[in-house]
Design brief:
The structure is a homodimer of 528-residue chains. The first copy, chain A, is an alpha+beta fold. Chain A folds into three domains: 122 residues, 2-Layer Sandwich (Uridine Diphospho-n-acetylenolpyruvylglucosamine Reductase, domain 2), CATH 3.30.43; 117 residues, Uridine Diphospho-n-acetylenolpyruvylglucosamine Reductase, domain 3; 196 residues, Vanillyl-alcohol Oxidase, Chain A, domain 3. In chain A, 34% of the residues lie in helices and 19% in strands. In chain A, the strands form four sheets. Chain A has a six-stranded antiparallel sheet with strand order 12-14-13-16-17-15, with helices on both faces. A five-stranded antiparallel sheet of chain A has the order 5-6-10-8-9. In chain A, strands 1-2-4-3 form a four-stranded mixed sheet, with helices on one face. In chain A, strand 8 and strand 9 form a beta hairpin. In chain A, helix 3 packs parallel to helix 11 and helix 12 packs antiparallel against helix 13. The longest helix of chain A has 23 residues. Chain A is globular. The two termini of chain A are 36 Å apart. In chain A, 62% of the residues are buried. At the A-B interface, strand 9, helix 7, strand 17 and helix 15 of A face strand 9, helix 7, strand 17 and helix 15 of B.
C-alpha cells in the first residue's frame, strides 16, 4: 500500500504549505527589530535525498505487508516529533532512530495483528496519531533490547462511528485529526471544542493518551474530562469500558488508560462528551501595567465561579513577541461562550474583577482585535517554529502548573533560572510567560524561550536551559508537564515527581497488559 | 485506651439520639395512611447484652494494645454498616463477622505499625471512617484465609493540618467527619461543600476511597474532583502525590487510589479543593404533571451550561413518600449558589427551560418550602431507616447512572423489574425514583423501594428484589453504583461491569502494593 505521503517529514503541516521563504525573512527582521537579534543565518530545510536511514532490521509480517511502508519518506516522517530538538536534528539530517517500517492499519483487525506480531517478535510498537509530540513520545528510541520498532500510524482510523445527540456524545476513532473530527460533528450542531495548538495535526487518541489540554481555559480543561468510554487494544486483548456519564464503581478504568502514552495499549475508539456549538459569545482584552496585578486578577476570576472559556494571560514579553501587544503591558484575553444564554453578565462581572486588580480596557481599539491577533498567532505558532529553527534561533517552550500560594516564588525562581541559563548560554534572549489554563487552586504557566543560538550548538544550549528551568520547576513544587505529556524527554523529572510506589504499581499494570514490554517502551515506565 | 464509644452499635448516629419511639409510631401511621401498609409490627432495637460475638482469634500487638479495644460494644459497632441488610441482621443479633479487635491509631506512626503487623501476621485490615457503608465495605467478612481481622478506625485522625487560602485548599486528615471538617474550615470563610446524605457520620477518607457523591448536583459532583493530592499508607510504604491544581504527567496517581476502597492502602491525608462560602443563593421547586416532561426538562438544564448546584428531580412516588409533595406531580428542586455574583439570572433561565417542558411553579406557597421539606427529609433519612426496619418494612435504595439516550428504556425496564419483584415478594409496596446528580450526558437515578416484609423474610425478599433490579440495571447499560461504592455487596455485578483485563491490572497493582493481600480483602478485587 502506498501511504498518503503528503505530510512533511520535517516541519509542520503538509508539503508545500506553511511558512514561505519571505515569511521566514520577515521573522528574521522582526527578531532583529523587536528583540535585537543580529547576524541571523538562514539554513535551508532538509531534503529527503540528504537523509540516510539505517537499514530496516525487521520486515513487516507477510499478511500485513500491504498495510506497511518502509520507504525513506514514510520512515523519516515517523522518526521525529515537533520540538526544537526534533527540528534541529532534522535540519542536520540526524534521523538516528527511524522505525524499521510504518504500519497503516485499515481497521482494528489490522491493529490487533500488528500488536500480536510485535509482541511475538519482540518488536517495539510506537503509536502515532498526528505526530505532534514535543516530548519524544513518537520517536522510536526504544533501546537495544528490541529486534526493531514499528510506528503504527492510525490515520485510517478516522471515522465518527456513532453520534448520540440525546447525550451529546459520539463514538470516534482514535486516528481522527482535529479538523476531520469537527467537520464530521458539524452537521449535528455538535462540537468537541477541543482546540489544542496542535489541532490541525493531532488526533483524538493522542489527546487522550497524553492528557492534552484543550480549548477551555477553565473548568473542563483536559482531554480527561471529555472521555465517556474507551476502547483499547493491549497485547493481552481488548479493554472496552462501559459508557457512562459518571461512575463510582471502584478505581476508574478509563483513568488508567488516559495518560498512558501508548505504554499499555493502543486506544482505538472513544466515546466523547460533546458540546452544542456556541451561539452567544463575548470577548475582551484587559491590559495590566504589572504582571502581579494581572495574575492576581486572574486568580480572582478563576475562583469566581464564572468559568470563562478563554482566560489566557500574556506577560509583557509574551504580548510583545506574539504581536498581541507592544510589551508595555500584560494582556488578559477573556472569552465567554454559550449555546444557551447570553454571556454578557458573566463578562461584565469578570471585567469588573479585572478592573479591581488594576486592569483596563484599551480605549482606542475594539476589544476583539488583540484576541484575534492572539488567535492568529496561536494557530500560526507551529508553522513559525520551523522558521525560528532555520534562522538558528532557539524558540522553545516548557509548561507546568502549580498552586496559587506557591506561584509568586515559583514564577520568580523559574524565570530567574531560565533567564540566567539563557544569558549564560546565549548572551541575548527573552523568557516569556503566559497562562494557558487556570484553576481555582492554581495556574498552568507556559514559558517561551527565544534566544539566538551558536551554530551547531543549539541542542546543547537548549539542554542546559531546559535543565535549569525544569530543576527549578520541580524544586518549587510544579509539575514537569501540564499538557505536553512525559514522553521520553521528561522522564528524568517525571521520575522524580511521581511517587516511587506508584511507579512500581504502573510497572505492574504494564507487565500484566504488555508482558513482552513492546508497547512504546521508554515513555512513562521502563518494562520490567 | 478507652475509645469514645458513644456511637450506636446499631442504627444511625449516637446513643440516645435519632428517632424517638413516638416518631417510629408516626412513621408506622404514615405508612398506613399514605401507602396502605397494615399490620405493621414493631420490634425493639437490639440490646448490647443480646449480642454474642465469637472469641477474638488474634490479640492486638503489645506495642499498640493501648490503641486497641476488643470489648463487645467496640467490636459490634465495627461489624455492620448502615444498609437494610445490616439493620435487619443487627435486629436479629447476627453479628457474624466482627473484627477481632478495633484499632484507634492516634497518628500515622500507629497506623504504619498496625499495617506492618497485620501484613506480617496475615491479619486483614478493614479501614473504618464514619462507618456509613451501605455496600458491606466496612464489614470484616474477609474469608477464612486470614488469621483474623482488625477494623482500623481513623476517628483520631481528624485534624485540618494546613489551610491555604490563596489556593482555597486544605490538608485534612482522613478520619475527619463532615461536621468537624466544616467547623474547622468556617473560620477561614471556606467550605468543602461536600454534603452526602451520610454527612454527619462519614469521613473525608471514606468519601475519597469510595468516590462518594456530594453536594453539587452538576459539574463537580464526586469526591474525585476535589482531591488535589493524597497521602496513602500501603503495606509497602507511603505514597504521597504532588500537590497540583492539574497535571498531565502520565496516568494520574491520585486516580489510582480514589475509589480503591481500602484495597490498596489507607488514605491518611488529602489536600482538598475548597469553596468560598456562598453569599448569593436562589432556590425553587418546579412541578411537572408527567415524569417524562420532568426529566426532559432536567436533561435540557443539564446541557445548558447553567450548572445548578441543586437539580434534584423527585418522581411522583418520591415526592409522596418524602413528604415533599402529594404524589400528583414530579418535583424538581433547583438551586443556584455563588460567593461572587447574583444567581437570579441563572435561576430565571433554568425556570424558563423548565416551563418549556411543562413545568410550573406552585402559586400558592413560597418556592423554598418544598426545597426545605426535601432537605429536612434528606438529612433525617438515615435516622428514619432504622424505624422502617423495626416496623418490618423494607426501605432500601439502589442508585446508578446511564446516558440520556438509554434513559427512557433503562428507566422503564428497571422500574418494571423492581416493581414486579416487589409485587412478587411483598404484594404491596412502591418503587420511587429521584435524580441525585445530573450530567450533560446522563442522569444518576436513585431508586427507593418501600414494601412491607414478612417476618424473618426481609433479607430473602430484598435479595430477590435487588437481584432483579441490579440485573436490569446492568442489562440496560447502567452502572451498579454511582456513589455508594462496590464494597462486598456489589461485587457480582461489578465483576460483570468492569473489563476483565482492567480487573487483572488492578489485581497486579494490589499485588505490588499489598503483597500479603491484607488490605480490605473482598472489596473490588480478590487478592491473588
Amino acid at each position: 500500500m502506498s501511504p498518503v505521503a503528503e505530510r512533511k517529514f520535517w516541519g509542520w503541516g503538509r508539503e508545500g504549505e506553511g511558512v514561505s521563504e519571505s515569511e521566514v525573512h520577515q521573522l528574521g527582521d522582526s527578531l532583529h527589530d523587536r528583540l535585537g537579534f543580529s547576524d541571523l543565518r538562514l539554513v535551508d530545510p532538509p531534503r529527503l535525498s540528504d537523509i540516510r536511514l539505517r537499514e530496516p532490521r525487521v520486515q513487516p509480517p507477510a499478511l500485513l505487508v500491504h498495510r506497511c511502508a518502509a520507504d525513506t519518506r514514510s520512515r523519516a516522517e515517523h522518526t521525529l516529533g515537533k520540538s526544537l530538538r526534533d527540528y534541529v536534528r532534522g535540519l542536520r539530517a540526524q534521523y538516528d532512530h527511524p522505525p524499521d517500517f510504518v504500519a497503516y492499519p485499515a481497521d482494528e483487525a489490522d491493529l490487533v495483528a500488528i500488536v500480536d506480531w510485535a509482541a511475538t517478535e519482540r518488536v517495539a510498537v510506537v503509536p502515532y496519531g498526528g505526530g505532534s509530540s514535543v516530548a519524544d513520545g513518537i520517536e522510536p528510541r526504544v533501546g537495544d533490547s528490541y529486534r526493531g520498532a514499528v510506528s503504527v500510524d492510525l490515520r485510517h482510523l478516522d471515522r465518527v462511528l456513532e453520534v448520540d445527540v440525546e447525550s451529546r456524545s459520539a463514538l470516534i476513532e482514535a486516528g481522527t485529526l482535529g479538523p476531520q473530527l469537527e467537520d464530521r460533528l458539524r452537521p449535528y450542531g455538535l462540537s468537541l471544542r477541543f482546540f489544542p495548538q496542535s489541532f490541525e495535526f493531532s488526533s483524538l487518541g493522542g489527546w487522550i493518551a497524553t492528557r492534552a489540554g484543550g480549548h477551555y481555559a477553565t473548568m473542563f480543561t483536559q482531554a480527561d474530562d471529555f472521555v465517556q468510554a474507551l476502547r483499547v487494544i493491549t497485547p493481552q486483548g481488548l479493554v472496552q469500558t462501559r459508557r457512562l456519564p459518571s461512575d463510582g464503581a471502584g478505581v476508574s478504568a478509563d483513568r488508567m488508560f488516559i495518560g498512558s502514552e501508548g505504554s499499555l495499549g493502543l486506544i482505538t475508539q472513544a466515546w466523547m462528551r460533546l458540546q452544542d456549538r456556541p451561539t452567544h459569545r463575548a470577548g475582551a482584552s484587559v491590559h495590566f501595567d504589572g504582571f502581579e496585578q494581572a495574575w492576581r486578577g486572574v486568580q480572582a476570576i478563576s475562583q469566581s465561579g464564572l468559568w470563562p472559556s478563554n482566560c489566557r494571560l500574556l506577560d509583557h514579553n509574551e504580548a510583545l513577541h506574539s504581536g498581541a501587544g507592544d510589551g508595555t503591558t500584560a494582556i488578559l484575553v477573556l472569552g465567554f461562550e454559550s449555546a444557551d444564554h447570553p454571556v454578557a453578565p458573566s463578562m461584565d462581572r469578570a471585567l469588573q474583577i479585572a478592573r479591581e486588580f488594576g486592569g483596563s480596557l484599551p480605549p482606542e481599539e475594539p476589544d476583539e482585535d488583540e484576541a484575534r491577533r492572539w488567535r492568529r498567532f496561536f494557530l500560526r505558532g507551529p508553522y513559525l517554529k520551523e522558521g525560528y529553527t532555520r534562522l538558528g534561533v532557539i524558540r522553545e517552550t516548557f509548561e507546568t502548573a502549580c498552586t496559587w500560594d506557591r506561584f509568586p516564588e515559583f514564577h520568580a525562581e523559574v524565570m530567574d533560572a531560565a533567564r540566567k541559563a539563557v544569558a549564560d548560554e546565549c548572551g541575548a534572549g527573552i523568557v516569556a510567560c503566559r497562562f494557558t489554563h487556570v484553576y481555582p487552586d492554581g495556574p498552568a504557566p507556559y514559558y517561551t524561550v527565544i534566544a539566538p543560538a551558536r551554530e551547531n550548538a543549539e541542542l546543547d544550549q537548549w539542554a542546559a536551559i531546559k535543565q535549569s528551568a525544569s530543576d527549578a520547576v520541580l524544586r518549587n513544587g510544579g509539575t514537569i508537564t501540564h499538557h505536553h505529556a512525559v514522553g521520553r524527554y521528561h522522564r528524568p523529572w517525571y521520575d522524580q515527581q511521581r511517587p516511587d510506589l506508584f511507579a512500581a504499581a504502573l510497572r505492574s499494570v504494564k507487565s500484566t497488559l504488555d508482558p513482552a514490554g513492546v508497547m512504546n517502551p521508554g515513555v512513562l515506565v521502563d518494562p520490567v
